[in-house]
Amino acid sequence: MKQAGFPLGILLLFWVSYVTDFSLILLIKGGALSGTDTYQSLVNKTFGFPGYILLSVLQFLYPFIVDPENVFIGRHFIIGLSTVTFTLPLSLYRNIAKLGKVSLISTGLTTLILGIVMARAISLGPHIPKTEDAWVFAKPNAIQAVGVMSFAFICHHNSFLVYSSLEEPTVAKWSRLIHMSIVISVFICIFFATCGYLTFTGFTQGDLFENYCRNDDLVTFGRFCYGVTVILTYPMECFVTREVIANVFFGGNLSSVFHIVVTVMVITVATLVSLLIDCLGIVLELNGVLCATPLIFIIPSACYLKLSEEPRTHSDKIMSYVMLPIGAAVMVFGFVMAITNPQDCTHGQEMFYCFPDNFSLTNTSESHIQQTTQLSILNISIFQ
């Protein structure tokens, strides 16, 4: 919302969710047309070895760009402990269907976190000064926003794993599942984005929890819940990376020993990356434009266009022809903008409105940096 403009941001969320819904169904249709049952084999059969290598790199890198959050004091210890205690054991499963109950718990916690964000929008939002450009229709950084939204909806890299775990998998059953999932997801994203932006407007950070004060016990509980959702969700990403390694180097099969060794290596490297990075905004942007955008917009469309024998006027082909250039543009321009105009990040520092004296709502027309600096010096608070 901060990057795109609030009205345009809402429209873009609906658009990205529609494209995601379409491309997920297109992906399974491509698998049916080519007689393949993995994303890698689909691209390999469609575009040969170069396409196979490109997809493998994208799928392999995706989990390593995810930052498992900094939620408590001593984040390095907490991340290491939670990785060894929970993430690694869950990632050692061979059947992704066993993560179904875990994912359900994660979804329930997400709903709880949403309730906390909505509650703070009501209780905290009126006390936060609104920035001057808070309600403009569109902003020049909208392409960066599309990258972040693509990250939010990306699940193509594990689609075939989930599809194969269904009882009697068919394209029709997959389509119903995807329609329902995307509808739920887009409304969750809209409520999160709307409540977060209404609360903080131009002060909104890439990691929304960085906006809240440390002495807010309700939000601290929300941070804990979010950390748990990451712990419970990340093993699905590990499944994909491990599958890529198995397909590229082991002919698709891993022995019990190599299954453990590869899993430990993947989790170890990903954990080391998360320990070194504490700014979530740039992580979401780069992951969105470099990995999520080609996996959502470009590759499913390209595979379907090459495999399908439908006429060019068929609706699926028209949509695919539209998605390809848009995806390429988002990938190129989004990467350039993410590097030249990175999102703000406080690196765990308190925001200006968290200080306990002399709150003032004046001078709200100044820029984000000026306002943050000046009001911090005034040592202000909204909690009296």
TrEMBL record:
Record flagged with keyword Transmembrane: yes
Domain (Amino acid transporter transmembrane): residue spans on this chain: 79-339
Membrane spanning stretches: 6-28, 49-66, 72-90, 102-122, 142-166, 178-200, 257-277, 289-307, 319-339
Localization, UniProt: Membrane
InterPro entries (UniProt xref): AA_transpt_TM
GO MF assignments: L-amino acid transmembrane transporter activity
Biological function: Putative sodium-dependent amino acid/proton antiporter.
PANTHER family xref list: AMINO ACID TRANSPORTER, SODIUM-COUPLED NEUTRAL AMINO ACID TRANSPORTER 11-RELATED
Family recorded in the similarity comment: Belongs to the amino acid/polyamine transporter 2 family.
Name under which the protein is recorded: Putative sodium-coupled neutral amino acid transporter 11
Organism: Cercocebus atys
